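We emphasize that the prediction below concerns an isolated chain of 607 residues; any contacts that depend on oligomerization or on bound cofactors are therefore not represented. The input was used exactly as deposited, without trimming of termini.
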Amino acid sequence: MQNGYYRSAAILFIPFIITVSAFSAAAPPADIEWTTNDADKAYSSPDAKTGGEFNIGILSFPMTFRTVGPDSNGSFRSAILDNQLSLINIHPNTMNIIPELATHWAFGKDKKTMYFKLNKDARWSDGEPVTADDFLYTLEFMRSRHIVAPWYNDYYTNEIDKVVKYDDNTIAVVAKRPGPDLHLKLGVHPTPEHYYKELNKDFVRTYNWKIAPNTGPYIISDFKKGKYIAFERKKNWWARDLRFFKHRFNADKVVYTVIRDYNLMWEHFKKGKLDMFPVTLPKYWHEKTKTDVFEKGYVNRIWFFNDTEQSAQGLWMNQDAPVFADKNVRYAFAHAMNIEKVIRRVLRNDYFRLEHGFMGYGPYTNPDIRARRFDIEKVDHYMKAAGWTRGPDGIWQKDRMRFSVRVVYSIDEHTPRLVVLKQEARRAGVELRLQKMDPSTTFKKILEKKHDVAWMGWSTSLRPQYWEHFHSVNAHKPQTNNITNTDDPEMDKLIESYRGSFDADERIRLSKRIQEKIYDICPFIPTFMVPYVRQAYWRWWRLPSPPGSRRTKDLFDPFNAAYGGLFWSDGEIMRETKGAMKKGKGFSPVIDVDTTYKIKTLRALDK
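Result of the prediction step, given as a token string:
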């Protein structure tokens, strides 16, 4: 789903064009209750100043600027999507609805319709007004086979029924069926019909590197393939003085520079060529910061705890690989992974064990599931049950097949973790062959299902999403997010019931049952949970107090409409710092640890 809340997408093949459901009507029902949110507290700082250029490093150049279609589901996609506002969003501290393109909203009594009044000032980046027709066009666009995005074809057909236009600034969005959390589903974004003109078979090629008009605070202003992408802040952005956008998105320019090596990126940061560097990795936080720029106080460090959904990070087994066809072997593989030793030895106990792939979702999380721990005796038990025996070299074998699997990954800094896992797994009779590739190549290989084991994590949403990752309709085919090729009839029924339910209590029960089923199938080995942000930044960049929100995942995210763009540059401090650097003078080092939003379970561990 591509709106203010869900940014990930799986793919389902639908080989036909679907008719559009867009309607006009005289007026919304007279008995609905319009509401807005002008009560929740803004979380930006009135001290923020505009100006400056913010420089960020990225490991690879995106494969396209499209946000739908082939090769569009990469990490840079969020930078583009975050500059495309939706009708509404969620306050990152209170979780209440807040306005974006809509000023007011109302819920229909049928429990499947939401009504919206559009902000009459809303404008596309090319100056055209945002109107009801742009939301009608979203359905036509997302249902077209020409965008080659089957997940969106499916979602906007089977989940969204229609968009109703009452006038240029009043619409209704109708779901296919009643359900809870309608605001998470129906707060869709507009699509500029005046820009795309018409959809045809050349869409993917034509728009691969086009800069589509957007509604957010920044727009891509310049790029050089393989080198950099620059965004400029809109000087007269229509929403700059709105309650939840005021004093935000302050940098005049944001530049993403491609630096294909993480260590080289670190060197660029220390030289001041980059303004921020994530130091979540223990090696960076504890060791590599023992340099002049930190010890002389030119660069600050912050450790900020958040309280939000945790990424499903871990080892994803491809069940279409012959070695993983037997569930007993998957169980054995899980017990052969010494995750706790990696946390102790490599990660200095800074990380926490992820028990399963859906932690941090409140009542939707099953608290009783615990990840399988390293246990050589259990490895022996399950491998023998599957008919395997230890070979001459100590590795399990069966019918000329060795328990030797290739683990694909993309980040150099993760190599020490995998080396420890490899050493421990060999003790258990399992051989890991580590294959590092650049991020784009790795992700493409995984989506094409050509991996044995994928070492990766997924982005999160406000509610657990199961269909794209675990439903059989997305198995045994390339370019879907079911990278484990999970194909289980009982799982399918549970997921379909979860998707079809409009009772919150039933969905919570089904969510927990699905998590139990995932644990039973064992397509995925959870590894680490990192419920915080650790970043280093040059001292002239400033943050509000508290420095982020409950749901902040990056204190220096320049664009995220819910929690990004809170930082700003202080020109006076920049001049002071650069002058001191020339003279060899220093400042007191700053290391800030902020526990304002530290989750309760971690507070309990502290005690």
